[in-house]
Design brief:
Blueprint lengths: L4 E5 L3 H12 L4 E5 L2 H10 L4 E5 L7 H11 L5 E5 L4 H9 L4 E4 L4 H33 L3
Parallel strand pairs: 1-2, 1-3, 3-4, 4-5
Helix pairs in contact: 2-3
Length: about 140
Amino acid sequence: MLPTTVLIVDDDPEFLDLMAERMASRGLIVTTAQNGHQALNYLEGNKYDAIILDMMMPGMDGIETLKRVRQDHPDMQVILLTGYGSVETGVEAIREGALDYLEKPADMEELTQKITEAKTRRTLLVDKAREEAVREALKKYGW
């Protein structure tokens, strides 16, 4: 089985380092980005099993980054983290396609479980898209 890959996006470098270290110690392959623009650039050439995205960032906030990720990479699974949680922002995050919405400091066991769930969901989505592409190709060529 391939290792789980995670992109962590947060404007706090200390938080990024700590989270990356804690996730790497659990066997995850971790990439970090300090803002939404950098995260979107990383997505151009890479696929991740889960994206851990801070809600409050200067410039492009978590919801706007989520919208862009889901628009350009619909199979990507995003878990939003925030230190300023509210029911309204949680509902908006889920409505925009986030897998989940957790408050900081996130429990590492719960977050690891959510990452595993994200990987499973992404794998199912990718497999379904491949099956549909094969079906369409067979239909196109009359097989």
